[in-house]
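Internal tracking record. Fields below are filled automatically when a chain is submitted to the structure queue. Please do not edit lines marked as system-generated. If the sequence contains nonstandard residues, flag them in the REMARKS field before resubmitting.
Queue: standard
Priority: normal
Entity type: single polypeptide chain
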Amino acid sequence: MSLTQSIDPILNEAAAEGAVPGVVAGVTSADGDLYLGGFGERVLGSGEAMTPDTVGWIASMTKAVTSTAAMQLVEQGRLDLDAPAAAVVPYLDEIQVLEGFSDNGKPRTRRPRSAVTLRQLLTHTAGFSYEIWSDAIVRYQEVTGTPGIITCEDATLTIPLLFDPGDRWDYGINIDWVGKIVETASGQRLGDYFREHVLGPLGMNDTAFRITDGMRTRLARIHQRGEDGTLEPQMELELPQDPEFQMGGGGLYGTVGDYLRFIRMILNRGLADGEQVLKPETVETMSRNQMGDLLVCGLTTAIPTLSNDAEFFPGMKKSWGLGFMINNEQAPTGRSAGSLGWAGLANSFFWIDPAKGIGGAYLTQVLPFADEKSFALYMAFEQATYEALA
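SYSTEM-GENERATED OUTPUT FOLLOWS
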C-alpha cells in the first residue's frame, strides 16, 4: 500500500470527526518528498482548507534550526561548546540557582557551582526550565513580575536556574539563550542570520519569525481545547511580530514542506542542493548523545491551559544530542533506535530516522500541548508511514 493510501484516510477521518481542526503531514527520504497532505480547516468554521502549504507556528521545532546555526559557528571556531557561555553573553554570569522561597515569599538564590556552557544549553542540562512545566518558575515570575516566555521580552530570560549546570536534564529556555549567543557571535539579528545561513540555503522560503503578507494568507489559527473537548479558534494567540528578542527556542512560523527540507539536510549529513550547510562530522556529533548518563524525563504541567503532562515513549530511555531528543531504543511506531525528534507547543512534531533514511513532520494548531487526540493522530501517522514503507 502506498503512503498516500495509508496516511490520507487516517488524517482525513481525524479532521472530519473534529479530532483536530486541520492537519498537514509530510514524509521525506534523503532524495525528496515521499508524501505531503493536508486535511480539515485552517480556522474552524471558515471553510478555508488546510492545504499542504498552510503556515503555522512551529514553536519548539525552531530549536533544531537554532542549534544548527550555533553549530555552524562552532565549525568556524567562533563558538566553543565547552567554554563558559558568559564569555559570549556576559549576563549568563549573573544567573543564579533558585533554592526556594523565604517566609516572606522572596526567592532564595545562590551562585551556580560551575559556569553554563554552550553544550549544556544545547542539551538542556544548564539548569533552565520553562514556566509551563515548573511550579517554581511560575511562582518566581509571579513574585518578581518577570514576564512569560511567549512575550519575547528580554526580561523573560532572567529567570534563575533550578539546579547546577550539568546536574540533570530539564526542558527550558536554553535555546533562547543559544539564539542570543548566535546573534552576538555573528553580529546579526537571529532571523537575518537564519535567512542567510540556514533557511535561505535550504530553500525554506515560507519559514520566518515575522509572518510575511504572503505567509499570512495561508496562516492557520491556534485552537484551544475546552474542558468539554470542543475546539475553538483563538484569534489573539500570535507571537509578537516586533519582539525584543527573536525566540530561538520557539519563535518560527513555517510550513511542513519547508521543515521537510531541514529534515532532508540532516539525512544528507549536512548537504542541501549541493551546498554543505553543516559538515558531515557536525551532523554526526549533533545526532549522538551529548549528555552522558543523564536521561530525558517526562514533563509535568504547571499551566494546564498550555500543556498537558507530556512524554515521548514513556518507559523508554531517551537522551539528547545537540538539538534533538534521541530515542535509545526502537519506538513502537517503527522509529529506529538512535532517531532524532521533537515537537512544538501547538502540537507540531517531527522525527528523523537516519538508520532508515526517512523523516516526517506534522502540523496542527491546537493547545494544550500533548493534546490527547492530536498526539494520538501524530503517532498513527508515524506508524502508518513505517508500515507502508516496510
